[in-house]
Design goal:
By secondary structure, the protein is an alpha/beta fold. The chain has helices at 5-13, 38-43, 46-52, 73-88, 102-108, 140-149, 174-185, 206-214, 230-239, 284-287, 299-302, 305-315, 333-341, 344-351, 401-410, 417-420; strands at residues 24-27, 31-34, 60-63, 93-95, 117-120, 134-137, 152-155, 159-165, 194-199, 223-225, 259-264, 271-273, 281-283, 294-298, 325-329, 354-355, 376-379, 395-398. The protein has 2 domains: 5-264, 2-Layer Sandwich (Aconitase, domain 3), CATH 3.30.499.10; 271-420, Aconitase, domain 3 (2-Layer Sandwich). The radius of gyration is 21 Å and the shape is globular.
Amino acid sequence: MGATFAQKVLARAAGRENARVGEILTVRPTRILSHDNTAAIIGKIEGELEEYGLDRPDLPVVVLDHVAPARDTKTADNHKRIREYVSRHDVQHFFDVGEGICHQVMVERALARPGEVVVGSDSHTCTYGAVNAFATGIDRTEAAAVLLTGETWFKVPPTIKVVLEGTLPPCTTAKDLILTLIGRIGADGASYRAVEFHGALTGLSMDDRMTIANMGIEMGAKAAAFPVDDRTRAYLKRIDPGWEDSEAVWADEDAEYERIIEMDLDEIVPVAARPGRVDDVVPVREVAGVPIDQVLIGTCTNGRLSDLQDAAALLRGRSVATSVRLLILPASRQVFQQALEGGTIADLNRAGAVVLPTGCGPCMGAHLGVLAPGETCLSTSNRNFPGRMGTRDSDIYLGSPLTAAASAAAGVITDPREICSEGGGA
């Protein structure tokens, strides 16, 4: 019997030839990500760090993004402590306020590569499965231990195989695909499972794959991964000329899976997750007409260039409804620059959008877009739990950038196909 992606990559990171599902392995991750929580992590091991130092100065990646720029003195002091730690311990990979959201930075700076094990003190670390990494979140105590020892342990997870067939219809996106899958299997349907994506992948861009892998945790997955194909190779060669195909890992054809799920992309329609649960997913038409106060397009899920371009194309020649605040949050400085140079930011600004500095603020209810009691937001982010964007007395719907842009123009939740059919949008 062959091996799954998870079995292969974890065995290699443990210095083993193979690994069985359920086996506990000690592995050496290639990188460990932390963000504004870095100060809390190193606070657990300050004495040990001073005595022994980091296992490797190139092991940690630190990105200041969650409350960036600082919203108050407490946040500023937290950032200051992190900068001092980075300097004192010669951390080689540090990205200060404004460089980007950590998960976007990790991929576009080639800090997560095919066949590697990458851990992060953030649940959406699974994003890097888009480039064939076994990437997963760990808690702060585990993160502290990894910084000192360079090691952690995993129980080799069983794997769910998702086989895609067909092509996504016009005005339907990868966000609709992954929300549909989460709605189908539930928020805990892949708990401590790896998820592999197979089949008709050529139509999915790297941006699409990052969106899908990012939301693996929203169905409970330990990791969500794609194979390296021609599209991945072209992307990796552009951002990391030294990358070699030999580093990639993928499942054997006769690998054993716990479950196989087949999805016909031709049948996917624009969908939305209703407030309170990511897996309460319905076609957008079922919630069409719901008044909204705010729209957020961006975050680590849908703040990449193609997401902003899709929204700008749909809004071109239109204006944001006077009752709506449309917030645009590029995933990184690089994305923002590309959107500036291509005219995307100008189009969004002309339509009435407010462009925010790159970061996580409104998505996590920290700042720059917190909701008031009784307000409703349509967001392209990954979570809609009560209180996620501030007060618990607010509603958050999740949808694609196209759904978000169409709704911002209409002032109510709107199926993007109504506008696309008029000749606008992607």
